[in-house]
Structures are given as structure tokens and as C-alpha cells.
Amino acid sequence: MKTGIISLIVIVTFISIPSCKQSFNKESGGHKNKFEQVLKHYELEPQKQLAARFLIENMDAHYSYESSYHDSFLADIDSLYRNYPDKHSNFYREAYDILSKKYKAPKSVYHKSLDIENIAADFLIRHIDNAFQMWQSNWKEIYGFEHFCNYVLPYRIGNEPVSDWPSSYISEYGEKIEMYSNSQQNKFHMFGMANALNRIHPISVYDPDEYMPELPLSLLPSVKIGDCNTYALRSIAQFRALGLPATYDFIPQWGNRSMGHAWAVFLPTENLFFPFASNEPIGEHLLHRSEDRIPKIFRKTFRKEMEIFNRVGESEIRPELFQSPYIQDVTRLYIETSDITIPLFPNVKEGTVYLAVFNNYNWEIVHCGKRLGNKVFFDDMGREIVYLPVIYDEWGDLIPVAFPFILQSDGTMHVLQAKTEKLESVKLTRKYRTSGLLKRYRKGMEGGKFQVAHKKDFSDSITIATIRNIDENCFHELKTDNNESYRYFRYLAPPESEENMAELELYDGNNSKILVKDAFDNHTIGVNAIVGNNAYRLFDGNVLTNYVVLDKKKDIWAAVEFDKPVNIVKIRFLPRNDDNFIREGEVYQLYYWDGYDWKLIEEKIGNREGMLIMDNVPTNALLLLHNAMRGKEERIFTYKDGKQQWW
After folding, report:
1. What is the pLDDT of residues 422-443, one digit of tens each?
2. Closest CA to 252 of 343, 155, 322
3. To 10 degrees, the CA torsion angle through 200, 206, 211, 214?
4. What spatial distance separates the first Cα and last Cα of the chain, rounded to whole Å?
5. Could you give the CA distance from residue 233 to residue 496 in angstroms, rounded to a whole number?
6. Backbone angles phi, psi at 268, to 5 degrees
7. What does the alpha-carbon distance between residue 115 and residue 113 come to, in Å, rounded to a whole number?
């Protein structure tokens, strides 16, 4: 890297960097002296002084989470990676499980450590000098000062413990990108460096069951596993330490599935931005998630963005999403959006109205609106999603203030007000949406053959049934029209198949299930044998296990050797699946949204056919199918043209 600071006389003109709602003197309070010390330090360097003022005036609501044992937790994480730097990801996964149990505590026990109280003057000066040196000696001709302040200068990204991280990142990554240090200062130089940085760390995703606080940025280069938040923070720190503008964007809650998401964004100039995650091409993030619906995307900022924050009244309950003034709505930069105005139920009390989406269990807030009397306005909402307008009551519970509605692909709204006077019967096959991956699993089985033979190598095999079209990841039955008995049976997958069979059941002429004691595959009896015969998974009774092939050979098959020849007249098979199809013998409850809550329509027991027929279902209703015995994944749906439509 170029490290020399270019000597020049800086003529500073006023630039528009929004300051906080209150003045610097008022915000700094009793900490005024140390911050005046910083400003005085830069009295002969007006551009650095302006940068210092930007940090100080936007600092007051920034904080880290701390607790009585937080330091011990961080010390154990640091010790783990110093003592065991090159272990398999499963080793770190087990270690994290132990640490998360050891330091198990809800987020509520952590207190906020305010930056304005804890940031020292010398830390701020050192950080500003380092950031300026990198910017001025490498990138000043490519992006401007305001862009620098927003996306390179800040000493923190999220709510991680503050640390002196940039110098360690330069030491860690500088040599790895040395090939770019002699390049011309241009955007291609930046992209080359960005892609090189983003390929350094392999990743292994770990989502802890317990709350785990953010790690300091200085520790992240050592980390070998983490969630999307951890990897985003590390990527942003990598980029910023080397002067590459970057920031943090996030989806608070997906619109048609559980959880939210976060990623890093590279902003090489004021007019370009490229989302990315570790170990993928810059700009391709979200490209392969076309089936996941986005209601809102927010950007974490260091600068205060008061417009959304001020929509919530000072005396109102404030949802966690909007407790910080450091978020900016960037949804329209990513997707087509719509501005919508919603009429509320009569006599809805004053207060902030929010839009919520369903997260498999309850409704999660994704945006706050602007009240217009008994209507509310929401800007830049993602389409093809069901939304529910809600408000907090005096006890802090969310209550609906309008009917749920579908914001359709053309931007129009379809209100889901159940018509209880107009009922219908519905056919239900699942309680959760079918993903593209499930569709690929079953498509990859089409053309698969069931064969029998007298010889173990199947050199005399005959086909007794073939899989044609499969429209569901549930059990299917095939008649064989076979009248002869054979010693061997196999499932022969289509060429280049991933082998996506989960379960097999074989039946004789008396409709009795044929006992299978053991199974083998073609790899265990040939010269190309591989370790780990797992054909038994086809008969283990576990619908979430499947026969796995380590290499895609021309002929892939799993077979059974019987004690004596048997006549197979029926085959029942299950493609690889997510266990959200209708299970025989389990209890299912169908609900509809009546405007204020879920109301039970009917309860039925799952059958062998994998289909429930429910009667007396209101039309134009938002529906939910619940397995009363087990499971977590459940999605809302509507019913149209004889099919479940998932939201």
C-alpha cells in the first residue's frame, strides 16, 4: 500500500454533512473539554477538523453492549483462535456452542456503554489521522470528502465494542493485496483490491441459539465461523481500513420466510454501490435469492438520519428497529417499490402505525408510517408481500388497525377481508412454501427407474416402474404390474442425478410392507468404491435423511438384497424434502385471520394421501395451517384456483 501522505495546502469549503438535531456543545455535555481538545488539535488542518466535528456531532447515540461477563467472553473467543487457529469449522462450532451456554444471557442483561462517555480524545485523533492518510495517499481523486466521512472515516460500524482496529487490518491484509499498490489510481484498481480482499477468508455459517454480542472489529480477522452480521462487519472493516468505502445494509425481516439478513456494500464512488458477502463476486449478493421477498432494506450509518426516527413520538413505545437514528431507507435502490396509503379501522387512537410481515410465528415490524388523520402513508414498500398495519397498545402489545393486504406485483393493494358469508372447500398439501431447492430435488428424480434382478450386479435387471412427473415433495405410489419374484431390487437414479430419494417402501401382492434388513449401493461392490455406504437411509424411517452420492457417476443406484426372492407390486417413495408436507396421523389445524387474530376453522388428522380437504373456509381469507404436534416452519397463504398461494 502507498503510505506516504501527500503534502498539500487544503482549501476547505463548506460541505453539507448533516449534523445532529442539537448542537455540538449541548450534545457533548460534560465531555465538552475532551472534544474541544480534538478540534483544537486540528485548528491548522480545517478538513480534518471538519471530519472530527462530523464524528463528534453524530456520536451521542452510538454505543456498545456490555455486561458483567462480556470481557471474559471476549477473552475466551480470543484465546480460542490464538490457541487453535487452523481447526475444522466443526471444532469452532462446538466451541461456540460451549461458550454460548457458558455465557448464556438474554440481551436485556446487557447495558449500553455510550461512545460519548468512553471515547478518548487521543483515540479519536489517532483514528482520524490514519483514515486521512489512507484516503489522501490513495483515493482522494476518486471519491470526495463527504463520501469519505460517511463510509471510510467512522471508528465503528454496528454496536461492537470500540477497538483500535485499522492498523491491525493494514498489517493483516496489506501484503495480500500488494500487487495493487503500484497500480494507477482508478476504479479498476479499487475493484481489483475489493475482490482480492473479499476472497481471503473462507466462511462457515454459524447462527447461535443464544444471544451473542458483536465481537470487536480487531478480533474479526481471526474468526473462522460466524453469522451474516459477523462476516458483513469484517468485510466492511477490511475495506474501510484500506480506504475503500463500504457500509452495512440489512433486511429486518424477509417478506415470505423467517429471519432477516445483512450484508456488506462496496461504494467505490458517490453514484455506485455493489452488495456483497464474503467469498463471492462483488455485486452478486441477493442475485440468487429471487424467491425471497424483500419488504424493506435499511442502511446503517454513522451520521444521524432523523426523518424516520422522528416519525415515532418521544412518549411512544419505540420498536427495536427504530430505536437508533442511524438507519437510512435504501429499499428503492434495490427493488421496485410502491408508496401506499391505508385507511385504518374507525376510531383508531393517535400514534405511530407500523407495517408488519409474518415471520412463521408472529408479526414483525418492518416500517413506520406517517399519520394522515385516520389514514397512514408508507413509502417505498417491497411488492408481492402480505402486510399487516399495527399499532402499540398501552401494554406494549401489537394490535391490528386495518385488514392485512397483498401489495401486488403491479403496486396495487388487495385487501384480505375474509368473506365468512361465502365459504368454500380447500385442498391442502403443505404448511410451508415450496422452495426452489425442493423443486430442483424432485425435478432431478424424474426419469429415475425401479428395477429388479436375479444377479447382485444387476446385469440382468428389468425396469418395473419409472418416475414421471412429480409435483410435490411428499409420498408417491407407483404400481408395478410385476408378477415375478426377484432377489434384488434397486432405485436407479437419472444420469448426473444428485440422488434425492429420501424414503422407499416396498409392498407385495397382499399389500403388506416388505421388510428390508440392509441396503447397498453400486459404489460398495465395484472397483470405484467410496467410503460411507448410506443406502440404508432410504429405509431408516427418517424423512429428513436421504441417500447421498459423493461423485456423480453415470449409473447411481441404491439396492436391496432380500433373504429370498420377493414379488414387488407397489412402491411408495418420498423425494428429498423439508418435512412440511401432510404427515399421516398428525394433527393439523386450519386458521383464518378475522381482522384481529387467528380463528380456528377446522382440525383434521393427516392421511396417507398427503392431502387435507377442509370445508367451510371463508373466501378471500388469509390462512395458516398449523401442525399441532410438532414443527416450526409455517407460512401464511391464500387459496386461489384450487391451489395454496404462499406469502
Report:
1. 999 999 999 999 999 999 999 9
2. 322
3. 0
4. 49
5. 39
6. -60, -35
7. 7
